[in-house]
Amino acid sequence: MNINELPYVLRLLWKIFPAYVANAAPLVFIRKGHPMDFNKKFIDKKPILGKGKTIEGFLVGSIIGAIVGLIQGQGSISLTLSIGTMIGDVTGSFVKRRLNISRGKPAPIIDQVMFLLGAILLTNLFFAETFDLMDTIVLILITIPIHFITNAIAYLLGIKDVPW
After folding, report:
1. Which three-class secondary structure string do you get for the chain?
2. The predicted structure's pLDDT at residue 3
3. What pLDDT is attached to residue 31?
């Protein structure tokens, strides 16, 4: 079956799949690493990102997501999806620290959407109109429950310490 013959939502999920993989890969493959913020504090005296955002995690997420996209036949778009995912995830951590939400605590919407927006924005920056506004809205609406479900599964499998 040709990918273009799939229903709209399945085509979108196929197209964004490298971002989903990039977002999950550090959790699966990296247990410890070197904090991206080098344990430094921001001007508000709070951690910039926290110990959970590591150089190794950023690299592993970017590389594994890109490899998955290459296997899918998405080419260089898969690299922007993966790197954008990691940038969005790091941005979410930065925002959470500013809002006094400590590492591992839930931040509804931020946790589910920042990685996705990073992937979409970076990809659209390099590959104009890869995702339009309707694509973005639909992806946000389907990513929120997918994120909750996959986190619950990761918790049940012992990959995550918390179910969110």
Report:
1. CCHHHCCHHHHHHHHHHHHHHHHHHHHHHCCCCCECCCCCECCCCCECCCCCCEHHHHHHHHHHHHHHHHHHCCCCHHHHHHHHHHHHHHHHHHHHHHCCCCCCCCCCCHHHHHHHHHHHHHHHHHCCCCCCHHHHHHHHHHHHHHHHHHHHHHHHCCCCCCCC
2. 81
3. 84
pLDDT along the chain (164 residues), means of 10: 86 97 95 94 96 96 98 96 98 96 90 96 95 98 95 91 84
For residues 123 and 5, give the distance between their C-alpha atoms in angstroms, rounded to a whole number. Answer: 23
Taking residue 38's Cβ as centre, other Cβ atoms within 10 Å add up to 9
Residue 41: phi, psi to the nearest 5? -100, 155
Residue 1: its pLDDT value, please?
63
